[in-house]
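Dear colleagues,

As part of the handover before I leave the project, I'm documenting each prediction I ran so the next person doesn't have to rerun anything. This entry is a single chain, and its sequence is reproduced below.
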Amino acid sequence: MRLPNEFVGLLVATSFAAGLNVYATVATLGLLAHAGLLSLPPALTLLGSWWIIGTSAALFVVEFFADKLPAFDLIWNALHTFVRVPTAALIAYGASAELSPEKRLLATLVGGLIALAAHGGKTAVRAAVTPSPEPVSNIGLSLGEDALAIFLTWFAARHPYYAAGLVAVFLAVIILLIRWIVRAFKALFRGAERDLAS
């Protein structure tokens, strides 16, 4: 058995959204399911319970403020590597319950890797922006990430193919950004080494 293509698109998009803000993603999935706008597989019906929705919403409020404090947001995001990626993998695991064990493992790994890419891109951009003396760029990035996670989850429930296409574009941008940031840091360190040597 295989997952319908629409559901694959939904999984790709929600994995990426979870890498940005897992609490917003889970709360949005739950609200969409509770409102009857999204049919979740049996293994994920728990996401539609008010307990899960309420807990996710409360944690989203905490993250909303914690993620907007320069410097602290880097610590927060580093710790959330151990929340966002495993949660995205668990959602993919639950969504692929009807697949063979090999395909289910593959879906779980892909979900986790997409979340890791989104999370890594977010963290790399934050690390580049945090040294900026003004907090506006940091707050703006955080608000954009929150809005994108919610929008992408909702959009994937309505238009899974387009949402998966958007994620492909975002992943390409993240790869380019990470390469640019790595090159910038290498150039910075080479310059510092030359200064120390002279």
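Residues 182 and 188 are 10 Å apart (CA to CA). Residues 5-197 form one domain.

All the best with the project,
I.
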